[in-house]
Amino acid sequence: MLEGLANSLQRALAKLKAKGKLTEEDVQEAMREVRLALLAADVNVKVVKDFVERVRARAIGQEVQQSLTPGQQVVKIVYEELTELMGGSQTRLRMAPHPPTVVMMVGLQGSGKTTTTAKLALSFRRHQHRPLMVAADVYRPAAIRQLEVLGRQIDVPVFSLGEGEDPVRIAEAGVAEARRMGADVVLIDTAGRTHVDEALMQELERMQAQVHPDEVLLVVDAMMGQDAVHVAEAFHTRLGVTGVVLTKLDSDTRGGAALTIRAVTGCPIKFVGMGEKIEPLEAFHPDRLASRILGMGDVLSLIERAQQAVDEQTAKEMEQKLRQARFTLDDFRQWLQQAQKLGPLDQLLSMIPGVNKLKGIENLSWDDKRFKRMEAIILSMTPEERANPDVMNASRRRRVANGSGVTVREVNQLLNQFEQMQQMMKRFSGLGRRFGRRGAALQALKGLDLPDLGMSEPLSPSRHPGEGRRRSRKSKRR
Amino acid sequence: MGLLDKFRKGLEKSREAVWGRLAQAFSRQRLDDTVFDEMEEALLAADVGVETSVWLVEQVRKKAREQRIATPEELPALLQQAMEEALAGMDVTMRTAAAGPSLYLVVGVNGVGKTTTIGKLGHRLVQRGARVIFAAGDTFRAAAIEQLQAWGKRAGCDVVHHSQGADPAAVVYDAIAAAKARRADYILCDTAGRLHNKAHLMAELSKIHKVVSRELPGAPHEVLLVLDGTTGQNAMLQTKAFKEVVQVTGIAVTKLDSTAKGGVILPIVREFRVPVKWVGLGEGIDDLEPFDPSSFAHALCRS
């Protein structure tokens, strides 16, 4: 059921030879698979129908690019259409010309409104705003208290009138309070409600009429199913939603509801929420969600970005070195630099399936600073040490630590990681001898649970760790 | 209001939505592929999922052939029958301890309604004259303890709690001791919402489970997985993961009072053979009902 689309497409279209143009039959076959993938990802049935129709129309008669099979060509079209439909990244909120800017947070029960309100407040605070959170959920027991506790955590004031008050009055008084205390952003946390609860929906309308929000953000659980269509429709028609926040995207959901909501309301998805810890909200990346819905992980976008960033020649050389297990710390540094071009490392690593399974990796916060430190450590070594890390005794480690302004522990960590990586490479190249070059690559790809995208060559360095890690896990199992 | 009525009222929206589509299909003149296609679509729109939708339609098609049915009007009965068959053979009663307190562990991802379900379940048990203790095992989320305390007050149940950030296993340990001392009949353990794909949080849950079974022989008597009725196919993955870690014995599906259809119940029962035991049909303290497969199937495919 959760098999990647690329896989099933490939199978469905295996019999088709690469030929000039996509025929109606090619597309027909492919569309069946696309439909299933979208449905399995919880995209609404109607939305799927429209979408598939659009893609079909666009795909028929298209030239199949030389490097792609018809199946891949179709995936590419689907992916592009999906990304486009999902819209650009729009993380900016409409700010009121005369502060305070008023933001209403609305949504179903348990979608994560209160947590999201706090995250948004923190994002504002980080940008030198003075937010005020208004606790207008008088229905759920202890909801006000929850917001108050979160407010204290992130040092943002919370306005409330207790559970006995009318939420509309609380919102009004909250905005007045913001004016009085000079807060420039008011975030109103409303109670969760089903969209069919007439009384509660009217309450939101009254609130909107009173406080004139600049933004009405619909908070949606990314795991939501088919009903997203009704929820989005109802909230949008009654309140004119201005943006969507997709929460719990750190789960393993495909997140098809996002597509449904986008298609139904046309509202941009402005932020995504990951995790329960109160951290600033993250920007929304349409391309990533598109490949996620299609069930291709983020592999597709990784490959695309890798192809752009990595210089062919370096890639080839490094590949050669990796295969011969002549991978030195200098190469490691080069690899780091290449990887850096691809974007924030933690995202990149999380895109490579299985990468967090590697021992030691999970303890590192893979931010860019960490990168620079690793680079500094390597640069503080002599060429000899870089080529042959075995000579790194305690005194050398101390020297390097001093030279690069880090602790000896960090130097040790880096050397350990490097060693692990080297070992993986060795295993990888060992296999290479057994199966031959292409065989090894294919074996490695089979070890991955990800769809064979037919992109196995040329292997770009940034993909090696993923493969190597998978490889190593597999060999351990033997 | 009778149980069935209440159930049907709660599912009214669901029924309208599904029935609206099915009625269209069933009112056609001839029994052709279009009818079955539309039936499949209606099932998909109810979160039944691709596999089970296809399977259900196939069942109906087979039955129609066998019984030589020629008009679409007779299909709802067949569909209901197929659904009931898929849900059949599940024990929906709650297990209890032969002697001493029965402990129910309530688990699920964030925001599905675990605490609310505990409140409602506690209320039901108290109404039947039982003595119930709540264990505030969600020590992570801000004000989760206060939320459970509010429910405890409403339902008339004692709440055993530590402070936020405490070890949930220790809370449960204390609750068991308190239940023994106060001769309580039931211990309902709340736990923090956790995404099923977070290994460390699942490990924590497994620890709570271990403590429970060590401190109270035969416990937990039920591990109740709470699923949000508006969740799509991810509910399958949730069930799978929680079942592996804490041997889920029953499911409570919440929020079925909206337009959500809760159709995901069908593939879950079919694939994992875990019975759905409760359905949440609203925010009131009385809005928790035992799951009844035939009224669920009935409500879903009949007008």
Structure description:
Chain B: It catalyses: GTP + H2O = GDP + phosphate + H(+). Chain B: Keywords: Cell membrane, Cytoplasm, GTP-binding, Hydrolase, Membrane, Nucleotide-binding, Receptor. The complex is a heterodimer of chains A (478) and B (303). Chain A is an alpha/beta fold. Chain A folds into 3 domains: 5-86, SRP54, nucleotide-binding domain (Four Helix Bundle (Hemerythrin (Met), subunit A), Up-down Bundle), CATH 1.20.120; 101-293, Rossmann fold (3-Layer(aba) Sandwich), CATH 3.40.50; 299-477, Signal recognition particle, SRP54 subunit, M-domain (434 Repressor (Amino-terminal Domain), Orthogonal Bundle). Chain A contains 20 helices and 8 strands. Chain A has helices at 5-12, 24-40, 45-59, 70-86, 113-126, 143-154, 167-181, 198-211, 228-239, 256-265, 286-293, 299-309, 312-323, 329-341, 345-351, 368-379, 383-387, 394-404, 408-447, 464-477; strands at 101-107, 131-136, 158-159, 185-190, 215-221, 243-247, 269-272, 282-283. In chain A, strands 3-2-4-1-5-6-7-8 form an 8-stranded mixed sheet, sandwiched between helices. In chain A, helix 3 packs across helix 4 and helix 19 (408-447) crosses helix 20 (464-477). In chain A, 47% of the residues are buried. The model of chain A is unreliable at 305-310, 343-366 and 430-478 (pLDDT under 50). By secondary structure, chain B is of the alpha/beta class. Chain B folds into 2 domains: 3-87, Four Helix Bundle (Hemerythrin (Met), subunit A), CATH 1.20.120.140; 102-291, Rossmann fold (3-Layer(aba) Sandwich). Chain B has 12 helices and 8 strands. In chain B, helix 11 (265-272) links the parallel strand 6 and strand 7. In chain B, helix 4 packs across helix 5, helix 5 (75-87) runs antiparallel to helix 12 (293-301) and helix 6 (114-127) packs parallel to helix 7. Chain B is elongated, with a radius of gyration of 21 Å. The two termini of chain B are 19 Å apart. The chains are: A alpha/beta (478), B alpha/beta (303).
